[in-house]
Every structure is written in C-alpha cells, then in structure tokens.
Design goal:
The complex is a heterodimer of chains A (115) and B (880).
Chain A lengths: L1 H22 L2 E2 H12 L10 H11 L2 E7 L5 E7 L1 H26 L2 H4 L1
Antiparallel strand pairs in A: 1-3, 2-3
Chain B lengths: L1 H14 L1 H25 L4 H12 L2 H12 L2 H18 L2 H30 L11 E7 L10 H10 L3 E14 L6 E8 L3 H5 L5 E2 L15 E4 L1 H8 L9 E4 L2 E8 L15 E4 L3 H4 L15 E6 L5 H18 L1 H4 L3 E6 L8 H36 L1 H9 L4 H36 L16 H27 L3 H5 L9 H34 L9 E7 L7 H16 L4 E7 L11 E6 L10 E8 L3 H5 L3 E4 L13 E5 H8 L8 E4 L2 E9 L14 E5 L7 E8 L8 H11 L6 E5 H43 L2 H9 L4 H35 L6 H27 L3 H6 L2
Parallel strand pairs in B: 3-8, 5-7, 14-19, 16-18
Antiparallel strand pairs in B: 1-9, 1-10, 2-3, 2-9, 4-7, 5-8, 6-7, 11-20, 11-21, 12-20, 13-14, 13-17, 15-18, 16-19, 17-18
The chains are: A alpha+beta (115), B alpha+beta (880).
Chain lengths: 115, 880
C-alpha cells in the first residue's frame, strides 16, 4: 500500500519537474491541469495529492515557490524549477530512459529468446 | 545530504506551523477557485461547478494529513501537541498542580542544595583553583595516629623523593596583626612556599604573585599578596594598591599582587586575607626557628599527582622518603611515617564530619522525594480515573497505546519539569544565601557552594526520574483501558486498587520514619536549650588575645596574663576576671587527654582520659562553678607553690572511686600536678552530654600564647565592657588586638549553629511530610470512594446508616495505613536505638508521633468517606 503511494509520488514528482521545465513558473492548479492533459486520468480524481509532492520537492530544493498574481489577478503560489531541480530532472530522465529501455526490451523479447 | 536538509526544513516547518497551514489553505482555495471557473466556462451551473471542482480535488483532510506528515516531524509535533494538551489539562487543576509542583520543588531543591555541598567538599575543596580535586594532602603521621604536620626542611626534601607528585606546596596558617601600632586589627594569613601560586595555577587579579626565589632565604623579601576581598575593602579595588605598604606584625610589607576573587587559601573552609613568603616567618613571628628546626612541624603540604601516576605510587614513595628521614634525623622524625590523603578525608578541618552528615541528609531527602513521587502517583491515578472516559474516546477514535502513554507521560513530565525548574531556582537561591552568609567564629570561614552544571544535571535527572516514577502507574493503567469499558457507565472494578494501597502504605511508613527522626532531633535540641549548663553564662564577656606575633617565652606569657588580669580587675564594672585556654561549649570542643593519677589502678587495658583546661585563678568565680573542696589556684606570680590541679566531681567518682582527692598527684605529658581542689561538674562540650571527667590546670604552671579572657560584669551589661577591655590590651601592648569578642550567650549560640541548621530543616520537613502523607491518603481514598458510589448507594438503600458506611471505609483504608505505619515505626525504632540514642528510647516521641500520624490519616480518610456517605441513595443508583 505504502509502496504503491511511493511509486505514484515518484512518478508525480518527475512529472512536476518536467512540467515546470517545459512551461516555466506555474501555480499548483496549472501544474495539475498540465499533468491531467498529458497523463489522462492520473490526477482526474485526486488533484490534491499534488500538494504534498510539491512540498517534498521544495524541501529537497528541486523547486522553489513564491507568491504571485494568477491570470485573473488573484494571489497564487508559483513554483519554479531551481538549478538543482534541473540537474535532478536530467539525471532522473536519464535513469528513467534507461530503465524504460531495459524494461521495454524485456517485454519486447520474443518467446524464442526465453529458451 | 538531502535527508539532512529535509530534516532541518522539517524542523523549521514544525516551528512555523501556523503560517504553513495558512499557506496550504490559501493554495487549496485558489486551486478550487480556478477549477470552478474552468467548470463554469464548460457550462456548468455555479453550484455544480464548485461541487465538481471539490470532487476532483479529492479528500482535503486526508491530503492535509499527508501534507503535514510530509511537512514537519510528526514525532516532534505530536510531542508539542501533547505538551500543549498537558498544559491545558494542568491549567484545569491549578490547586492540585500547585501542590504537586511545590512539593516536587521542595524535594528537588533540597536534594540539589545538599549535592552542591557534597560536591563542593569532594570536587572543589580549593575555591578558585581549577582541578583542585587533583591535589592530595601530604600528611606526616606519627605512631599515635596523629598528624603533626610537616617541617619546612621536610618540604625542601620531599619533592625530590616523591617523583609521583608533580608539585608539592607548603603553607602555614598564621594570625596577623595588621595596621599601625595601636590601631591594629587581627586577620589570618598563610605563610607559603615560593611555588604556592604557580603550582595552584592561579592568575593574579592584578600585580604578580610570590616568585620562587622570594621564598629561598629567610627574611629577604618583605612582600605580600592580598585577597580580592581585602583589596576591595581596604583599597577600594584601586589598581594603585600594588606597591603600597601594609603594616603586618610591625613590619612593612609591600603589596605585590591581588589573588583571584574566589581564592580563599588552601585550608578549607577557612578564608585567608594575606599570603607572605614562608621565609618571612621569622621576621613576622618574632624569630621562630620553623625554617631550620625539623621538629617544628608547622606546615601543611599538598601535592598534585604527575599525569599517569597513582595515589598508591605516591603513597609508596612518600612512605619510603619518610622512613629515610626518620633514619637521617632520628631526634625530629623518628616514628613518623606519612599518608597521602584526598581532601575530603583531611585529618584537620570539618570535611569528614560534613561529608558523613551530608550523606545522611541526602539519604533522608531522597526518601522524602520518593514520598513526594508516591503521592503524586496516587493523585495522578485518582485523577486518571476521572479521565477514563476521555482516554476511552481517544482510543476509540484511533489513538494508539503509545499515543495514550505519551499523552499521560507528557502531562506528568511537564509537572516534573515545572517542579524541577522551581526546585533548581530554590537551590540556586539557597546556595547563594549560604555562600553570602558569613560564618563568624574564632576563624573566618567561607563556604563557596554553587549550583553548577553537574548539580543542575542532577536536578534535571531527579526531575525526569520523578516524572517517570509517578507517570508510570497512571500511564500503564490508562493504556490498558478497553475503550468499551471506559465508555460504559462508571466502571465498578478497581483494577489497580492494590498498587494504590501499597503506595499509600509505603508513604505512611516513610512519613513515620522521617517524622520520628525529626521529632527526636527537635526533642534533643529542645532538651539542649533547656539544660542547665551548671555554670552561669549570663553577664560574661569573652574575648581572645594572641601573643604569637611576639614569639614569647613562658615567663613573659605568664607575666602578660598576670598584668592583664590586674588591669581588668581594676575596671569598675568587672566583678571577676579570668583567662582560660578553652571555653566550654566551643564549636571545636575541648581536648581530652591522657593522664595517670596517684591511687588509681587500671584493671582493663587502655588509658584514662579527661578534659583538660588551663585557667587562671578566679576562673571558678567568673563561671560561677562552686569549689566543693579545697581552694582556688595560687596567684599568678606566686613562685613557691608546686604545680596545681583542680579536678571535678566526675573525675573523683570515676577515677578515685569517690575517695579523697586533695593532695593526690596527677601525671600528664606536661608534668606532675598536685590536686588542690574539687569543682562541681558542669557542661563542657555539649548540652545534654553525660557527665565528663575534667582536670583544670593553672595558667601559672602552664602559660600559653593564646588566652580567652572571661569577664563577669557587675551591671549585667557585658557588651559595655568591650571598649574598656580593648583599651586595657592596647595599653599593655599596642601591637596586639583583642579579637573574637562575644558574650557567652553568643558563644553558646555559635555552638548550636551547626545543630540549628538540621533542626530548622526538620522543623519545616516534619509538618511538610505530614501534609504530604495526608494529601496522599486523601487522594487514594477519595478515588476509591468515587468508584464505589453505586455500591454505597445500594447499601444505603438497604438501610445502612451513613455512619456505618463512613466507618467501614475508614476501617478498610486504615488497615493498610496501620501496616505501613507499623513498618516505618519499627525501622525508626531500630535505627534510633542502635545509631542515635544508643539504647535510650524517647517514649513520648515513639508514642506521640504515631498517634498524630494516625490521627491525621484518619481525618484524611474521613473527609472523602463522609462526602460519599452523604450522597442520596437514589441519585447514586441513577448515577450511570
């Protein structure tokens, strides 16, 4: 149970970093929307789960936040990627690609390869 | 790295909790507002748009929990929460909390104060010297087991022969008459070796210290180091004090430096004002031969162990060295060995007595603290029972056992910590008060006690231990609680009844022991005050003089005393005057020495001992001690009469079987004396002492440098004689100062000073402990009764009278109390008979104290029992 949550959190964290990398500073709702658009229904029910992840990333120093004005001029908390976060993103992207490649090859293997 | 960083962030966030919470709330509101707008644009109705937004966001509370878990340190926050909770719950019981905190504070404060004293003696015997505990006493010891001190020549020899000691310093206590002729005042100083200050590792407040070469050759360097207090009072702390001249024993000495503020010399607990090179001794003390004469053992030695060396090594080397000295100088050192001793075991000074006394006191105080803990545990148990429902609700809502335990624990810990901080404050206040209090006696004494890191740690440790002790019972009790039981109507079973009763019994037992001890102490003290000393102290003025600065011989000592007495007796208000070497009821006691008396055959082994006092003619008149037989001593200048002695009744009874004493001879180390009179017994060392045998010798035969002048006034106002007596002494010798002037009553009060401290302590402790025991019993009984409300109601509905109910409750509890009291009584009795009164039993105390204790206990049972019995049976039955 806990493990599953950790996996979700890890994935989410990577998504948040990537989103901020691509779109620049963004508030929580914006990040949620973006992840929803791209990942389909991962956040369809539990947008709130995003916030603990944001906090964890901020504590780790991967992202920073400050108050700013949203589009309709309301106070909103804007998150941006720090230099450390960018490094972390690159490292994790590489990791992820390697893992994905290995797993992919693994699943792609034909029956005869197993014998 | 990352983990560490997160930890600190979390710590920080835990602290900034409110702000964080606010931020999250705002972010959520913003998020939902944005989503709602989005939904509105998609064409939903406002209400539906908001509902959908909320749904999409998910469970806010669950998310908040995650967020909080992520944000702070759960453990720390729970603890803080518990503490807040504890604070609130303590706030709801201010009376109870005050009782607990105050009793704890008293217990911890007393214990900490006593520990600071013990620590001072063990670890800090030389105030102002760091690492003083590393210094050891180097004490020559003769065959008789006495410690005669070391000679200057021995000091010069020893360091080379005892390599285990890195440094050995020598010092000697000397009285100084300071000031211009005719206006001298008496103070105490030390003659010290050249390495004294450097070996002690001291830094001068200003100026410099004595250099080693300044204590090499006799009489060359007229320099002196003054104490910080002396500098402040005589020179007002002016830097110009260095280089000034001070007149000491009619010699001008140049002040070269000021000792550090805390330093008071090296003879605990005496406080010295001046330090001069030992080589100045002959010049200051009228040409003593202390520096050359090996049999003049006037110095004390202390040494510091070389790193890596042990006391045993030093002891072995010292013994060898002393044996060698005994061979080399048989006339001065034969039969003299030596011991290396720690400071607290010093043969001179009050350390041994203080340490054992303090250890006993510490034991009693720890017992008291234990009683306080027992009480608090009982109170908390009683209170815990009323909180069963609260705890049951908490458990039902999902609080784990550990959460409950930590909740109870934090509440008790908070109480314990509040008690500890108050106790530590009391200890700081107490030690400071004692530190400041000047102890005026024959010698200036100062105790520099303080509450430092070690004592503070001890206080905190005690506090935490107390908290754990009295939290344990309620915590275990509440944590075991079945929520269903707790929520159900008032539970009928009393699961921890036995523990509570045992606690109550133990506490009563403890109270019994301490109360009896207190009563015995007060009783002996009261008896002491009322005992007739068998001499008349009223109307007598005491004062001392000291000729040591003149280095007089016997003839001049005798002549001086004779002239002094003549002049004093000529004063109009003086009815009688005398001089004695010892004053009865002195803090230090009067020496008892061995003798043989003509006509006495000893049947058993050992030696006869009696109190020795040397007095001038007229002594018995001043003291109003009647001479039962014979006459007073011959006049001071009478040369023909043989050496005389006067003995007391007890002497005649014990050593002469009541036979005629007059004319018999007494042989002592000082010579042979003829008994010329028998004096009535009187008190010598302490009020209430068994009769002691005493021998008085005449000043004429055994003159002394020091004398205690005793003047009986005609008018009854003895203090008025002070100025005249001073004038007489000044006329006789302008250099001498009259010192230690006091009335005989003041002298007796001083003797009782040491006894008075514990007496006062017990006076406070006794009632306090009785109160504590009463509170404890009250708490236990009211708790037990509150759990039996229904049972009592049923009984009364069936016709039991309230009187019978009360009686039954009292009987049940009194059983436990009586058992505890009986055990305590037996312990107190055994200790008292074996250790304190040595076979005598003080019946009023051993009957009175239990009576009072049981009376109070019954009252403490009766109040809650009475309350319970007055309940309306119907209401009791309806009571859930």
């Amino acid at each position: 149970m806990k493990q599953k949550k950790d996996v979700l959190q890890g994935t989410l964290a990577l998504m948040v970093l990537k989103t901020l990398d691509v779109l620049g500073p963004l508030h929580g709702y914006g990040i949620a929307r973006r992840i929803e658009q791209i990942s389909g229904d991962l956040l369809a029910v539990n947008q709130g789960t995003l916030y603990p992840v944001l906090l964890k990333l901020e504590q780790e120093g991967a992202i920073a936040s400050e108050w700013g004005a949203s589009k309709n001029n309301r106070r909103a908390r804007f998150y941006r990627l720090t230099r450390q976060g960018r490094k972390q993103l690159q490292a994790e992207t590489k990791d992820w690609e390697q893992t994905a490649a290995i797993i992919g090859r693994f699943f792609d293997a034909k029956t005869e390869d197993w014998s | 790295m990352k983990t560490l960083r997160r930890f600190f962030q979390r710590l920080f966030h835990s602290a900034a909790r409110r702000e964080q919470e606010e931020r999250l709330r705002e972010e959520i509101a913003e998020h939902i507002a944005l989503q709602t707008e989005e939904n509105l644009r998609a064409g939903l109705s406002p209400a539906e748009a908001r509902r959908q937004a909320m749904l999409k966001f998910g469970g806010v509370e669950a998310m908040k929990q995650d967020y909080r878990a992520e944000r702070g340190l759960l453990l720390v926050e729970n603890l803080l929460g518990d503490l807040r909770n504890a604070g609130r719950s303590i706030g709801r019981m201010p009376g109870l909390a005050a009782v607990i905190i105050l009793s704890l504070a008293i217990g911890i404060g007393a214990n900490t104060t006593i520990l600071s004293w013990i620590q001072m003696i063990l670890l800090q015997p030389l105030p102002g010297v760091s690492g003083a505990a590393n210094f050891l006493l180097v004490e020559p010891r003769n065959e008789g087991g006495w410690y005669p001190g070391a000679s200057w020549q021995e000091y010069r020899d020893l360091p080379k022969q005892v390599p285990a000691l890195r440094e050995v310093v020598a010092f000697q206590m000397v009285p100084f008459n300071v000031g211009e002729t005719g206006k001298t005042e008496r103070t105490f100083g030390q003659l010290v070796s050249g390495n004294y200050f450097s070996a002690l590792g001291l830094k001068p407040a200003i100026g410099r210290f004595i250099r080693p070469e300044e204590a090499e050759r006799p009489g060359t360097e007229p320099v002196i180091v003054i104490s910080y207090d002396y500098w402040q009072t005589r020179f007002r702390g002016a830097p110009g004090a260095v280089g000034q001249k001070v007149r000491v024993n009619e010699r001008d000495l140049t002040v070269i430096g000021v000792a550090p503020r805390e330093f008071q010399g090296t003879m605990f607990p005496l406080k010295f004002e001046l330090w001069a090179p030992a080589t100045m001794g002959p010049a200051l003390l009228g040409g003593t031969r202390d520096l050359e004469d090996r049999s003049s053992r006037e110095f004390s030695l202390i040494g510091m162990l070389r790193p890596g060396a042990t006391r045993e090594e030093a002891q072995a080397e010292f013994s060898t060295a002393m044996a060698q000295l005994a061979r080399d100088y048989p006339e001065a050192s034969a039969g003299i060995g030596g011991e290396i001793l720690p400071f607290w075991d010093a043969p001179r000074g009050p350390q041994r007595m203080l340490i054992s006394g303090l250890a006993v006191l510490q034991g009693v105080m720890l017992l008291l603290l234990l009683a306080v803990c027992g009480n608090t545990a009982n109170l908390m148990l009683a209170r815990g029972s009323t909180r069963q429902r609260e705890m049951a609700v908490r458990v039902a809502l999902g609080a784990g056992r550990w959460r409950i335990v930590s909740l109870v624990l934090s509440e008790n810990m908070l109480l314990a910590l509040l008690g500890t901080s108050l106790g530590a404050t009391m200890a700081v206040w107490g030690t400071t008060a004692l530190r400041v209090a000047p102890i005026i006696g024959a010698f200036p004494i100062q105790f520099q006690t303080r509450v430092d890191g070690v004592t503070l740690a001890f206080a905190i440790l005690l506090g935490v231990a107390c908290g754990l002790i009295f939290a344990a019972a309620p915590a275990v009790h509440l944590a075991r609680l079945d929520p269903q039981d707790g929520l159900r109507s008032s539970p009928n079973t009393g699961p921890r009844n036995r523990a509570r009763k045992v606690l109550m019994g133990v506490e009563v037992g403890l109270a019994m022991v301490v109360l009896i001890a207190a009563a015995l102490f007060l009783e002996s003290f009261r008896a002491a005050r009322q005992t007739d000393p068998r001499f008349r102290p009223e109307g007598v003025l005491l004062a001392a003089y000291d000729l040591s600065g003149r280095n007089p011989d016997e003839a001049s000592e005798r002549e001086f005393a004779a002239r002094l007495l003549e002049r004093l007796r000529a004063l109009p208000d003086v009815e009688a005057a005398a001089i004695a070497t010892n004053v009865p009821l002195d803090l230090h006691g009067i020496p008892a020495r061995t003798f043989t008396v003509q006509g006495r055959v000893r049947t058993e082994a050992g030696e006869d001992r009696a109190i020795f006092n040397t007095v001038t003619p007229g002594y018995f008149k001043v003291m109003a001690i009647p001479l039962l037989e014979g006459n007073d001593f011959a006049e001071m200048r009478e040369k023909a009469a043989p050496a005389q002695a006067i003995v007391n009744e007890e002497f005649v009874r014990r050593y002469l079987n009541g036979a005629d004493a007059i004319g018999r001879r007494i042989q002592t180390r000082a010579g042979t004396f003829a008994i010329i009179g028998v004096a009535r017994n009187s008190v010598y060392d302490a009020f209430g002492e068994p009769a002691q045998a005493a021998v008085y010798f005449s000043y004429r035969d055994l003159p002394s440098m020091e004398g205690q002048i005793q003047l009986r006034t005609r008018s009854g106002n003895e203090t008025a004689l002070t100025a005249e007596a001073r004038g007489v002494l000044r006329d006789l010798d302008p250099m001498l100062a009259l010192y230690d002037v006091r009335t005989f009553s003041q002298h007796i009060d001083r003797n009782l000073y040491l006894r008075r401290i514990p007496a006062r302590m017990f006076l406070v402790l006794g009632p306090l402990l009785l109160g504590l025991a009463a509170i404890g019993i009250y708490a236990a009984v009211s708790y037990a009764v509150s759990r039996r409300t229904r049972e009592i109601g049923v009984r009364m509905a069936f016709g039991a009278t309230s009187g019978r109910v009360v009686l039954q409750i009292i009987r049940e509890n009194l059983g436990v109390i009586t058992r505890g009291a009986a055990i305590g009584w037996v312990i107190a009795f055994v200790i008292s008979v074996h250790a304190i009164t040595k076979g005598e039993v003080n019946l009023p105390v051993f009957i009175g104290v239990p009576a009072i204790l049981l009376g109070v206990a019954t009252l403490a049972c009766w109040i809650p029992a009475r309350r319970a019995s007055q309940i309306d049976p119907m209401a009791a039955l309806r009571h859930e």
